[in-house]
Prior knowledge:
Blueprint: H1 2-27, H2 32-58, H3 66-81, H4 85-100, H5 108-131
Helix pairs in contact: 1-2, 1-3, 2-3, 3-4, 3-5, 4-5
Amino acid sequence: xxxRQMQFSCHEKIxxxxxxxxxxxxxxxxxxxxxxxxxxxxxxxISTIKMNQRGMKFQKIPPSHEVSIExxxxxxxxxxxxxxxxxxxxxxxxxxxxxxxxxxxxxxxATATSLLVFAxxxxxxxxxxxxxxxYNLILS
Length: 140
């Protein structure tokens, strides 16, 4: 239950961050303080999720368990928002590998949505390799 609560909290925080990023982009704002606050909140979510993953490993929770699957999805989303596309792609792949074991009972819409985000991050990662620059949604 605690893992689910922590994940739900991170999920809610990520949703808030996505909305804040949209607002900042629409305003074409140079609000560095707001961007740093968002980055700090994302770092907190990333740390929390990684801590949860270590706890799941210690408790021997299988990769196909819902909290394990969700941790990969949340971490991939957080890393993507930070502009860490190479790490996000790895987490997307871990998410999709974990879903394979429970595909018949897993929500196909969630899988399709994750595949779409995975493809976008993969494209962004390839773009970084071609231009040899790091795109960062937060501090750019």
